UniProtKB/TrEMBL annotation:
<dbReference type="Pfam" id="PF01071">
    <property type="entry name" value="GARS_A"/>
</dbReference>
<dbReference type="InterPro" id="IPR037123">
    <property type="entry name" value="PRibGlycinamide_synth_C_sf"/>
</dbReference>
<dbReference type="InterPro" id="IPR013815">
    <property type="entry name" value="ATP_grasp_subdomain_1"/>
</dbReference>
<dbReference type="GO" id="GO:0046872">
    <property type="term" value="F:metal ion binding"/>
</dbReference>
<keyword id="KW-0479">Metal-binding</keyword>
<dbReference type="Pfam" id="PF02843">
    <property type="entry name" value="GARS_C"/>
</dbReference>
<dbReference type="InterPro" id="IPR020559">
    <property type="entry name" value="PRibGlycinamide_synth_CS"/>
</dbReference>
<keyword id="KW-0464">Manganese</keyword>
<dbReference type="InterPro" id="IPR020561">
    <property type="entry name" value="PRibGlycinamid_synth_ATP-grasp"/>
</dbReference>
<comment type="pathway">
    <text>Purine metabolism; IMP biosynthesis via de novo pathway; N(1)-(5-phospho-D-ribosyl)glycinamide from 5-phospho-alpha-D-ribose 1-diphosphate: step 2/2.</text>
</comment>
<dbReference type="GO" id="GO:0005524">
    <property type="term" value="F:ATP binding"/>
</dbReference>
<dbReference type="InterPro" id="IPR011761">
    <property type="entry name" value="ATP-grasp"/>
</dbReference>
<dbReference type="GO" id="GO:0009113">
    <property type="term" value="P:purine nucleobase biosynthetic process"/>
</dbReference>
<dbReference type="Pfam" id="PF02844">
    <property type="entry name" value="GARS_N"/>
</dbReference>
<dbReference type="GO" id="GO:0004637">
    <property type="term" value="F:phosphoribosylamine-glycine ligase activity"/>
</dbReference>
<keyword id="KW-0436">Ligase</keyword>
<dbReference type="InterPro" id="IPR011054">
    <property type="entry name" value="Rudment_hybrid_motif"/>
</dbReference>
Amino acid sequence: MNILILGSGGREHALAWAVMQNPKCDKLIVAPGNAGIAAIATCADLDILNGAAVIAFAEEHAIDFIIVGPEAPLAAGVADDLRNAGFSVFGPSKEAARLEASKSFTKEICDAANAPTAGYGHFTDAEAAKAHIRANGAPIVVKADGLAAGKGVIVAMDEQTALDAIDDMFGGEFGAAGAEVVIEEFMEGEEASYFILVDGETCLPIGTAQDHKRVGEGDTGLNTGGMGAYSPAPVLSDEIAQLAMDQIIRPTMKAMADRGSPYQGVLYAGLMIKDGQPRLVEYNVRFGDPECQVLMMRLGAQALDLMQACAEGRLAEATVNWADDHALTVVMAANGYPGAYKKGTVINGLNSLPETAHEMCFHAGTAARDGQIVATGGRVLNVTARGATLREAADRAYAMVDQIDWPEGFCRRDIGWRAL
Ligand code: AMP
Ligand code: GLY
C-alpha cells in the first residue's frame, strides 16, 4: 500500500514512524515533512492547503491512503476534495472540522447533545461582549471563535484582562478568527485529553494523555503549544472516561450525524475533570502535538490498521491492543520560545541516539543543511520513550535529552511531575 501523510511536525514524524512498522506499508511519502522524517520516509514539497495540488500529487504517486495531520488542510476542505476524487482519507470533512475551527459551533453542538461543558455567550459585537463580562465577573474565559494557532484563548483572572481581550480581538489582533468571540464560564479542575477514532457512527477510544502547556517548570510562565506529554493520563480513570464517552463524545457525534455532517477521523477531546465529573473544554479534529507522539509510541504498527478501519467505516469490528505501559515525550525548544528565538542553530548528538520500539527522537522543526541538522522552528525535537512505568519512560527520555548537544535549545526537566 502507498501512503501519503500531510504535515511536517513531530506529530507527523510519529505517525510516519508507526505506519512504517506496519508490513502493509510499501511506500510512505510525507509532505512536506522535515529532516527527521526524511530519515525514514520520502519527503515531498507540496502545498497541503491546495486540494487540487494534493489530488494531482496523489494520482501521480499512486497513493492508496492519505492521513491528514494538521487542522489547517481539514478546515480548508482538503479531505473532502480527496474523497470526492475517490481517495481513501483519514480526516474529517470541512463541515465536521468546524468542531475545531469554530468555538461557537462546538458550543451549539454541545447544547444540541446536552453535553456537559462551560456555560457561554456568543458575541459579534464588542459592547455586548463587555456587558456580558461585567455582568458575570472574573475569572472568565475569552475565546476568538476561529482558528488562531492555539493563541486565541485568554483565561482572564480579573475583569480588566477580559475587557482588554475583547478590545484586542475586535481590534483585529486575531484577524478574521477574532471577528466573533465566545465567552465562557471559568472551569476549575484537572485537564486531560481523550483520543477517540470515529467513523461516522462507531466511537473507538485509542488512549488518554496529559500535556504541559506552560513553558516553565512547575507549569508556570507563558502558554506554549505543549512542552511535553505522557500517556496514559491517570486522572482519566476508566470510570471517568466512560462518563465522557456516554455524556459527551457519543451524544455530540450523534448530533453531528443527525445534522448531516458525520465525523470521520480522530477526535481529540480536551476535558476538565472535577469531583469525578468530566466537562468538555474543547474539541480538536486531529491528533494533539505532542500527544500523538506518546500515543503512537504505545500503539505502534496497529495505528495504520485502526486509521484505515476508521476511514473505511469498519470501526465496529476493530479492536485496540493495549500494552499495560506508559510513554512520555520531552519537547526541546529553541531558547526564547514561545517568544522570539533564533533559527538555523546546529543540533549535534542526534546520530548516536537509540532508535528502538521504546525510544525515539521525533523531529518537530528541523532541516538538513550542509550535512548538519539545524532547528527551523520554536518546538524542535520530541524526545520520546516508553516504559513499564512512567518513571522508566521519563528516565529513558531524559537520558536521550542528555545526549543531545544543542546549546541554543532548552527543555523542561519535570515532564510528568503530576503523575510521578
Ligand atoms: P482551548 O483552546 O479552548 O483548549 O483553550 C486553551 C486552554 O485554555 C485550555 O487547555 C484550558 O487550559 C484553558 N481553558 C479553555 N477554556 C476554559 C474554561 N472554560 N475554563 C478554564 N480553562 C479553560
Ligand atoms: N498539544 C496541544 C494541541 O495539539 O493542541
